[in-house]
Amino acid sequence: MSRASRFTSFLKLVEGPQTLGNGPKFWSGFAVVLLAACSYPAFADSYDVGNNVYFFNWLFMALGLSLIWGYGGSLSFGQTAFFGIAGYSYGVLTINLGDAYGLTLFSLVMAVAISALFAAVLGYFLFFGRINGVFLGIVSLSVTLVLERFMAQTAGPEWVIGKARLNGFNGMGAMPSLTIPWPGGNIVLYPDITLYYLTLALLVIVYLGLRMLVNSRFGNVLVAIRENPLRAEMLGYDVRKYQLGAFVIGSALAGLSGVLYTSWGNYITPASMGMTAASLPIVWVAVGGRSDLTTTLVGTFLVLIVFQSLTIHGSQYALVAMGLLLVITVLIAPKGIVTALVEFVSKMSDRRKSKAEEVR
Amino acid sequence: MEFLYSIFSFLYQFGDAFAFLVLSSCGLAVIFGMMGVINLAHGEFILCGAYVSTSAAHMGLPLPLAIAAGSIAAGIAGMIVELAVIRPLYARPLDTIVATWGISMIVTQGTLIVLGTTMAGSGTPFGSFSVGAYSYSIYRVVLMVMAVVTLAALWLMFTKTRFGILARATIQVPHVAEALGVNTNLIYSLTFGLGAALAGLAGGLYAPTMTLVPTMGASFMVEAFVTVVVGGADIFLGTAPAAVVLGLIKAALTSWKGQFAGQIGLLVAVIIVIRILPRGISGKILKERA
User: Fold this and answer.
1) B262: nearest CA in chain A?
2) Which chain A residues are Cβ-neighbours of B274 within 8 angstroms?
3) Are B88 and A323 inside 8 Å of each other by CB?
4) Which of B104, B222, B228 is the closest to A145 by Cβ?
5) Chain A: nearest CA to B51, how far in angstroms?
6) B76 vs chain A: nearest CA distance in angstroms?
7) Which domains does chain B have, with CATH numbers?
8) Does the beta carbon of B285 lie under 8 angstroms from any beta carbon of chain A?
9) B138 Cβ under 8 Å from any chain A Cβ
10) Predicted pLDDT of residue B290
11) Which carries the bigger pLDDT value, residue B124 or residue B114?
12) ipTM of the complex
């Protein structure tokens, strides 16, 4: 195979059996949405733009969970642990290194790598111990809760790494934002238009990259494992390695969310790993439709918007509504509400098509 | 003499850790071992037991009756949850985790909205006694006794009563039990109710020693999970020995490095145990027997 054709066949992985949405209709829709997202800052004030960046920050964690849970079939409740580890790592690194020479970008990469490393160690014990889905959920949740308690008790002055105080329950603040070194003055990425476009670009790259990943050999094997681990093993695949791989990639994405969030607000607290925080990603992904990247993306974005407006109008009831939404989704639309809608629409259009053919 | 005092101190700490592990986990273990359902709303049944028993104590009920009331209230709540949410999901065990977590969110936040951020406790009864230089709470010793009594009562219930035998039959081969005329739906409902009632009992027993806040369930969760994971699916061959082992680890680390080290130790222990014994202690024992 020549080099060019190998490259095009690699690019073709962006469509495939493991993702909804193929053909020109889907991609023109994708282009319209992307165009709308790109022109959004022209119509909105800078507060709304910054707020949208906040939404974007969470989508990486949701996509990662979709890969682990939806495609891999292993339910992890502990994604916020990686979120918190990366957030704190970014804080400690940038407070110590400063924001010159693009060192914040180095810190970003390091923080994501640290969370991926932590995921690899934890995942080794979990997957190579061959524990099943139920136990995976509760062990990862336990790890998250203990990490939260650990960070919450670091208030004393003895908890300091270099120049960075961990500050216990009050959380760590005053770390520099992401900064791009640029001739003629560094570009500091405050929650504003520049950061908006950068996060959007990152999101599109991650989304398309994950689409390619799940349609590649790796993704197909992962889905085979989800459908029937024993059969996949009998066919000669090392189930543990694939599950661990998905877990590390998904957790690194949670870490990316953590870094972006910490840089966005210059702030991270232990509560971002707690019980409430840990439950929200499950709600987003389950409601949207965990077994597809696009429905996860759409569902997460919608749930985030609804959750924020609920928090503004009836602050206390927002979490109750989220819990209800989760229970109802599991009982009525176990594949996710967005997925159910997509299936409903495609069924209707199929019926109309077949009816039209009958008339002819 | 000094040596004997420190031995007593260690034994007391071990007993305390053991009682906490057994009481906080046995409800979870009954539901998981019998039904294969991990109940993430376990902490909220504990919360229910704690709040109901404390309110009952405030109304003048004597403490044992108040605790029983809390346990019964949690049991009834459990049967309602089983009927409304768990029953349609038996074919999808992973989804029950998600659904019970939804319930947990609703209850925690609902309690916060309805009853406020905290509730006045009832105070630890019975006072204290002293051995050597340290003084110890009598109520904690009562809790240790209650843990052993609970295990014994569960053992009697599952081996000697008609309900226990029907429950074990249902769990082993549901279809055969059903064919022989057992109302398996009722058994599932009662088993879930029993698990919830045990959680309520833990809440009622520990309510006098803690501050009552809507998120108090979470403070039981790590210990309960860890015990069930290390123990495996059987309550007597799993949960009880796991509580002994983990109690020893926790007591040793707590007296050496403080309470937080105890918790980290538990977590590390559980991760290592998973690698060596994926099906827990009871899985290991039952496999060797078979």
Assistant:
1) A146
2) 125-126, 129, 131, 135, 139
3) no
4) B222
5) 19
6) 20
7) 2-124+138-289 (1.10.3470)
8) no
9) no
10) 45
11) B114
12) 0.78
Which residues of chain B have a CB within 8 Å of the CB of A282? 98, 101
DSSP β-bridge partners for residue A160: A165
The answer to whether A305 touches B81, Cβ cutoff 8 Å, is no
Q: Helix A79-97 vs helix A133-152: angle between axes, to the nearest 10 degrees?
A: 40
Low-confidence ranges of chain A (pLDDT < 50): none
Domain boundaries, chain A: 47-272, 274-355
- Any B CB within 8 A of A330 CB: yes
In sequence order, what are the beta bridge partners of A161?
Answer: A164
Give Cα separations from B16 to B8, B10, B11, B192, B209 (angstroms): 12, 10, 8, 27, 12
Three-class DSSP labels, chain B: CHHHHHHHHHHHHHHHHHHHHHHHHHHHHHHHHHHCCCCCCHHHHHHHHHHHHHHHHHCCCCHHHHHHHHHHHHHHHHHHHHHHHHHHHCCCHHHHHHHHHHHHHHHHHHHHHHHCCCECCCCCCCCEEEECCEEEEHHHHHHHHHHHHHHHHHHHHHHHCHHHHHHHHHHHCHHHHHHCCCCHHHHHHHHHHHHHHHHHHHHHHHHHHCCECCCCCHHHHHHHHHHHHHHCCCHHHHHHHHHHHHHHHHHHHHHHHCHHHHHHHHHHHHHHHHHHCCCHHHHHHHHHHC
Gap from B112 CA to chain A (nearest CA, Å): 8
The residue of chain A nearest to residue B85, with distances taken between CA atoms, is A331
Give tens-digit pLDDT for A35-59. Answer: 888 888 878 887 888 888 888 888 9
Phi, psi of A172 (to 5 degrees): -100, 135
Instruction: In whole angstroms, give the CA distance from residue A252 to residue A340.
Output: 29
The secondary structure of chain A, three-state, reads CCHHHHHHHHHHHHCCCCCCCCHHHHHHHHHHHHHHHHHHHHHCCHHHHHHHHHHHHHHHHHHHHHHHHHHCCCCCCCHHHHHHHHHHHHHHHHHHHCCHHHHHHHHHHHHHHHHHHHHHHHHHHHHHCCCCHHHHHHHHHHHHHHHHHHHHCCCCCCCEECCEECCHHHCEECCCCCEECCCCCCEECCCCHHHHHHHHHHHHHHHHHHHHHHHCHHHHHHHHHHHCHHHHHHCCCCHHHHHHHHHHHHHHHHHHHHHHHHHHHCEECHHHHCHHHHHHHHHHHHHHCCCCHHHHHHHHHHHHHHHHHHHHHCCCHHHHHHHHHHHHHHHHCCCCHHHHHHHHHHHHHHHHHHHHHHHC
A58–chain B nearest CA distance, Å:
20
Q: What is the pLDDT of residues A62-104, one digit of tens each?
A: 999 999 988 988 888 888 999 999 999 988 888 887 777 778 8
Count CA atoms within 13 Å of residue A224 on its CB side: 19
Per the structure block, which two tokens stand in for B245?
Answer: 């082992």
- B99 in reach of chain A (CB within 8 A): yes
CA distance A304 to A308: 6
CB A290 within 8 A of CB A146: no
Tokens matching residue A316: 């206390």
Length of chain A: 360
Environment class of B3 (CB within 10 Å of its CB; exposed 0-12, middle 13-18, buried 19+): exposed
Sole residue written with tokens 């996509």: A63
